[in-house]
Amino acid sequence: MTEVRERAAAEDFPELSDTYRRELTAHCYRMTGSIHDAEDLVQETYIRAWRAYGAFEGRSSVRTWLYRIATNVCLSSLEGKDRRPLPTGLGTPESDPGERVVASTDVAWLEPAPDPLVAADTADPASIVAERDSIRLAFVAALQHLPARQRAVLILRDVLRWRAAEVAEALDTTEAAVNSALQRAHAQLARVNVTADTVEDRLDEDQRALLDRYVQAFWDKDISSIVSMLTADAVWEMPPFPGWYRGAEKIGRLIDTQCPGGVHDMPMVATSANGQPAFGLYMRQPDGTFTPFHLQVLTVTDGRVSHVAAFFDVRLFETFGLPAVLPADHVATT
To answer: Whole-prediction pTM value?
Structure first.
């Protein structure tokens, strides 16, 4: 009888579990700050769940059961590892755009996440907005300031809306410990000044026009136009370079003096990351073609760009499904 039950479980499991792959990937991404780690951890979650599914008694939903496994897989993975910051999370003062930029290979940096891997798979507008808030770059970066177990508690309580008793059972602790960890997590996020602003569930015509002009300005290397589209206190950061820059004029000077591309050297290809507009920026090569240079993730606030995270990890282009090369006759458009 046990053998029959286990065989039936093995047949049922893929259909039951695959429904949750995207949201589990988002969960593991919030925990780790790495989309590559998240995909590996979801795979490990499914391996553990498949092995245990024959003994699953249904005292909780399959979804809750999978989240419990995924959370503990993440916690085990994070033991002994440093957090994944953005440059602004290092606690260093803003940089001077005239200074030489030097990459830091000693830091495991936060990674952006492609929307198709982590965005909500639902038609409900309210759910889409809530889900995008929980994967936006600023929120995931803020989570990295928390110890791993506090991070898990905050995500389970505030994002997934689990009851304290459910979290305590999942983490093998007490409700009092869960409530204490959540309080400390909230205090830490308040100190790093995470705002309650939401990411728009879709871009309106004005925002699309702004992004069109933004792409054109980089193609033309029109510094004054780029500066005009930034908020006065905009922030630009570009891991793995630990420096970060505040203010539209400083950012314009950085692009003007430090960026190697000239006029018609930098086309962009549109994508989306963390529920936000994003672009793969390419650089012209001696043979006229364009190869990956960096991936920009933009935050748009009140009709202007308020934050740019430019990730200088060209491996992300494959992760985001962006071309490995653009032809010499490529036309820059969004």
So the answer is: 0.89
